Amino acid sequence: MTFQGSRLMFPQDEIGHWAARYPQGWDEPALEAGSNIRDGDYSRENLEIIVRWKSERRVALIAENSDAEISEALQLARQAQEPRNAFAVLMGLRGVGTPMASAILTATDQEKYTVIDYRALEALGAPESDTNLGFYLRYYFPECKRLASEANVSLRMLDRALWSWSNENTNAPAVGQR
After folding, report:
1. What pTM value is reported for the model?
2. Where are the domains of the chain?
């Protein structure tokens, strides 16, 4: 199921090429923080590392949540069986919308989730598409899974390729906003 207007803006066999152009090590702190969360460390520090990777501007909003709220939201999101529930609990935190929740969930489980943002949408030929939860679950995520499966790559590799292609083919700001 593809969403209207979506088409990969580069040949599918170039996913590896574009993924290799992703800034070396840029996501490692976020993925390490996600691993810590997977291991039961539901701390503000781990969340803030992931938030900085996605959008430095959001850290101030995250600061408005208590440590208990953060811990409980991360724990409940990890325990959720359904993606909608994992997103919903994270989106209950101040400063977390669908794109940020997708980054948090991706950092904790790159095999189950992928990031949605303007860069990825642009690389799919859909820069004006919505980033709400319904769109993510109904269209975006299934399309990313389909593309990754067809190309025999991981969701993380596809995400890196989408980001890199957009970063190099548009005038939008680069590092500092995932």
Report:
1. 0.92
2. 12-25+113-169, 30-108
